[in-house]
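tokens incoming
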């Protein structure tokens, strides 16, 4: 995968403005360029002939280029030394963004676009992008300018792909000069019903014993991942309960929450967005990074 650019979708909406500036900062931190992408399409029945005359196509494309250039101007006003370029293409926004991110280091999108109503938690374009992306995606949730110097990463210690998720999280923490908090959440609701009798019979570990085992496993995983960034301070936490709810709470005091998603294989490549990542994408109080892994 090329590391020469960060790609961001821009459509003049407030969420896309937030995504634009976040993408510019990510590009600066990575010391790579930024590509501002805008997709345009025609409404149905533009003409009774069933096709779009060249003159109308030129008007649509001209407006699309102007929107993308406006995004570039916003970036250059804050990041004058950043290499910024535009990409304008005809087609559905998600498809255009995914195509543009084919060799990108990162894709950044807003949580909704111009078509989203105020109460919408996550727009359809963002969801389609997440389902098809070839690279890590940051959904620019939360518009609080306050920084916490803290990156939280959700670690599923039973998933071999967590190594990729931890590596991405450590990279982000290093770039931001931030602390990394590695969090593993296990659901103890079901075991509580039978725990007393099974523990008494020696057939089940206590919650305390399980927590100790999980903490040891998490610490080993994090210590290994940290070798690429030994300067990053970190902590490990084991929590019991609903993972999505706990991580959303953590997001209120973080600059970024990182979660993983498994790649789909076969005829429809993309990501399987699990319930924890879905909860974060809809409710987190800060940007959410979704990292693909096998």
């Amino acid at each position: 995968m090329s590391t020469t650019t960060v790609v961001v979708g821009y459509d003049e909406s407030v969420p896309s403005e937030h995504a634009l500036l976040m993408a510019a900062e990510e590009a600066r931190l990575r010391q790579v360029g930024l590509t501002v992408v805008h997709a345009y399409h025609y409404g149905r029945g533009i003409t009774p002939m069933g096709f779009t005359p060249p003159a109308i196509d030129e008007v649509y494309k001209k407006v699309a280029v102007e929107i993308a250039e406006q995004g570039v101007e916003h970036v250059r006003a804050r990041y004058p030394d950043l290499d910024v370029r535009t990409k304008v293409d005809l087609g559905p926004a998600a498809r255009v963004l995914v195509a543009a991110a084919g060799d990108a280091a990162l894709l950044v999108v807003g949580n909704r676009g111009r078509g989203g109503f105020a109460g919408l938690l996550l727009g359809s374009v963002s969801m389609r992008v997440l389902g098809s992306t070839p690279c890590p995606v940051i959904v620019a949730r939360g518009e609080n300018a306050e920084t916490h110097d803290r990156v939280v990463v959700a670690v599923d210690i039973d998933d071999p792909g967590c190594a990729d998720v931890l590596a991405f999280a450590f990279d982000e923490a290093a770039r931001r000069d931030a602390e990394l908090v590695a969090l593993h959440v296990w659901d103890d609701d079901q075991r509580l019903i039978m725990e007393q009798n099974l523990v008494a019979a020696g057939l089940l570990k206590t919650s305390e014993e399980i927590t100790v085992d999980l903490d040891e496993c998490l610490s080993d995983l994090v210590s290994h991942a940290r070798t690429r960034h030994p300067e990053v301070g970190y902590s490990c936490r084991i929590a019991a309960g609903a993972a999505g709810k706990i991580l959303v709470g953590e997001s209120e005091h973080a600059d970024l929450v990182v979660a993983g998603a498994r790649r789909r294989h076969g005829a429809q490549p993309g990501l399987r967005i699990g319930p924890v990542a879905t909860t974060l994408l809809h409710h987190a109080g800060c940007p959410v990074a979704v990292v693909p892994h096998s």
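note: The chain has two domains: 1-140, 146-294.
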